[in-house]
Queue: 2 jobs
Job 1
Amino acid sequence: DKHSENYNTLMRQLNPESRVNIFQVTEFDVSNMLRIKAKIDDGEWIFIAGDRSPPSGSSRTVAVEFMDRTAYMPIGPYMLAHALACPVDLLFTYCDYTATDKSIKVELKPFADQIKLERKERQQQLGRYAQAYAATLERHCADAPYQWFNFYDFWAKHD
């Protein structure tokens, strides 16, 4: 999408050797799944914004408690990780305003060796994964409250 292209352009300007490749997946069709699986098999990492509303709408979200309010997190990251049978880590980045060079701090936290979803309990399991993510995100927001960026009404009523 537009924002990803701007980001890619900026990364290439800062470092022409950058291997960052951002693309938006609006549907988990066979061709996208094979493309993502090939990247994982080649040792690449796939990053998904786990707190952004999916392009497909609110039907692909689950309710969680986040900062003492109900919020809706996407289920896509967990569905994709389940389909790909790959490990999931959480990535957090912060601008270190105390450093003289304004460096970026990166934290990578293990989340699940594999996302397991059983057909009979899929919705409950998705809710548990999303709640675990929301709890971790909440702790990071408490530690660095000015470094979580969402540009939409995050707690909007779910329809």
Note: The radius of gyration is 17 Å.
Job 2
Amino acid sequence: MSTRTQTSIVNDALTRIGSTRKLIDIGDPGQLAEDARAMWSSTVDDAIASHPWNFAIRRARLNRAAEIPAPGY
């Protein structure tokens, strides 16, 4: 499995919207790269919030109660 880079993800998104422009590197000084960097965090946050991703769910281990509660608790 290859690691996806920000640049490759942005280029894939550009292709999906029909753009012929591509980034060489997300750190480039151009307007396209600048716009992509500005939108990156909020886009990732929105994608994570839109689905219960396994990697984004924090699980807690609960201690067993000292006493068993009465039925119907």
Note: The mean pLDDT is 87.
